[in-house]
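Researcher: Sequence recovery benchmark, item below. Answer with residues only.
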C-alpha cells in the first residue's frame, strides 16, 4: 500500500470513530447553571400583640446547593394582601441589618437560629378582620444575593384587649399562685367581647420569657408548681383576644418574686420510747420531705421544761438516750428541721423509765 493510500485509510478510520461516538447518546437541552442563593427562612409565624405584628422565624444554615451559609447581611420583610399574587404585588416594608439581628435572637445561646421581631404596620388602623400577609427574604453576606420568599404568614387584625392589671402572687409550700384583674376595655377603648383567655409568661435572669400555659387560661388565676425557693422569677400576663386567632394584648406590668421557704416540715408521727439495759430507744416515722435536714430530740422529766437532748440533730428516724438516769420517768418528743432551718412543732410525747439495777446480794 502506498503512503497516500495509508493516509486515506487513517482518515477514513478516524471519521468512523467520530461517527460512532456521536451516536452513543442522545444530546439533551442545555441547562442553565444553578444560581447559588441562601435557603429561605424556616417556620415563619406571625401574630398580633396590641398594635404590633410579631414575626418569628428560623434562619437558614445553608445555600440552596447545600453548602454552608457563612453569614447574613440583611433580612427583608415584605407585606402583601393575597397569597396568589404575593410575589408579584408584595412590597418591601423593612430591612433588618446584620447588626440588628443579635438583639432579636430568641433561642438559647449565641448559635441559636431562632429570631423574633416586632413592629407597628404602616397602617395600624386597619379595620377589624383585615388580613395581612408577611414573608421574609434572606440576603447573604458573601454574594449579597436574596433567597426566595418564605411561605407567607398571615395576621388577621382584631380588636385587642388592654393588658391585665393587678398581677399579684402568693407563695405556698408547693406552688406560686398568681392572680390578676381582667381588662375592662380594648386597647382602642371599645368594650371587649368575650376574651379568649389569658397567657402567663415567666423569665429568669436574662433569659427570654417562656410561655407557662399550653393554651389560654379561662380564669384569671395560675398555679406555678415548677419553681425553686430562693430563685428570682419575673411574670407577665397577656389577655388573648380570641381563641380563634393569634392576637394578644401587650404584657401586663411585670411582677418579680423570689419565693422564700418559710414552711416547716410535717410534725414527726409514731414516736415510741422503750427502755432496755442502760439506754432508752426512740423510734418514729421518717418524714417524706425532700429537703429534710434532720431531727431534734427533746426530753423532760415529769412536770419539767422541754430541753434539747443534744446540740446535734439526728439524721435517721431512730436514736438512743444513754444519759437517762435509772428510775426516772422521762418524756420525749421529736421535731423535724429542713435545709432552710424551718422547724416543725414537737411530736406527741412518749415516755419510758429505766429500771434501777438489781442490788447485789452477798450470801
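Model:
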Amino acid at each position: 500500500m502506498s503512503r497516500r493510500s495509508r493516509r486515506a485509510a487513517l482518515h477514513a478510520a478516524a471519521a468512523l470513530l467520530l461517527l460512532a461516538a456521536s451516536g452513543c447518546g442522545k444530546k439533551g437541552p442545555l441547562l442553565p447553571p444553578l444560581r447559588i442563593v441562601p435557603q429561605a427562612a424556616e417556620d415563619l409565624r406571625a401574630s398580633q400583640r396590641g398594635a404590633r405584628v410579631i414575626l418569628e422565624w428560623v434562619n437558614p444554615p445553608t445555600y440552596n446547593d447545600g453548602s454552608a451559609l457563612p453569614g447574613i447581611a440583611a433580612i427583608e420583610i415584605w407585606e402583601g394582601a393575597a397569597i396568589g399574587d404575593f410575589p408579584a404585588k408584595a412590597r418591601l416594608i423593612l430591612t433588618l441589618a446584620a447588626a440588628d439581628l443579635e438583639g432579636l435572637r430568641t433561642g438559647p445561646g449565641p448559635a441559636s437560629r431562632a429570631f423574633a421581631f416586632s413592629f407597628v404596620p404602616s397602617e395600624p388602623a386597619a379595620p377589624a378582620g383585615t388580613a395581612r400577609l408577611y414573608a421574609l427574604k434572606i440576603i447573604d453576606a458573601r454574594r449579597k444575593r436574596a433567597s426566595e420568599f418564605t411561605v407567607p404568614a398571615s395576621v388577621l387584625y382584631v380588636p385587642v384587649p388592654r393588658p391585665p392589671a393587678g398581677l399579684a402572687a402568693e407563695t405556698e409550700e408547693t406552688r406560686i399562685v398568681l392572680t390578676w384583674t381582667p381588662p375592662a376595655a380594648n386597647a382602642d377603648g371599645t368594650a371587649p367581647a368575650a376574651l379568649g383567655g389569658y397567657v402567663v409568661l415567666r423569665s429568669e435572669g436574662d433569659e427570654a420569657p417562656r410561655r407557662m400555659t399550653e393554651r389560654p387560661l379561662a380564669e384569671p388565676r395560675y398555679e406555678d408548681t415548677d419553681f425553686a425557693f430562693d430563685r428570682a422569677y419575673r411574670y407577665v400576663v397577656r389577655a388573648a383576644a380570641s381563641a380563634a386567632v393569634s392576637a394578644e394584648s401587650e404584657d401586663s406590668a411585670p411582677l418579680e418574686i423570689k419565693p422564700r421557704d418559710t414552711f416547716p416540715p410535717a410534725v414527726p408521727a409514731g414516736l415510741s420510747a422503750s427502755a432496755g439495759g442502760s439506754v432508752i430507744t426512740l423510734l418514729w416515722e421518717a418524714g417524706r420531705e425532700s429537703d429534710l435536714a434532720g431531727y431534734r430530740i427533746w426530753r423532760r422529766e415529769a412536770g419539767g421544761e422541754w430541753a434539747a437532748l443534744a446540740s446535734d440533730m439526728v439524721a435517721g428516724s431512730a436514736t438512743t438516750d444513754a444519759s437517762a438516769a435509772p428510775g426516772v420517768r422521762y418524756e420525749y418528743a421529736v421535731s423535724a428541721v429542713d435545709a432552710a432551718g424551718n422547724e416543725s412543732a414537737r411530736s406527741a410525747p412518749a415516755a419510758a423509765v429505766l429500771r434501777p439495777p438489781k442490788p447485789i446480794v452477798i450470801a
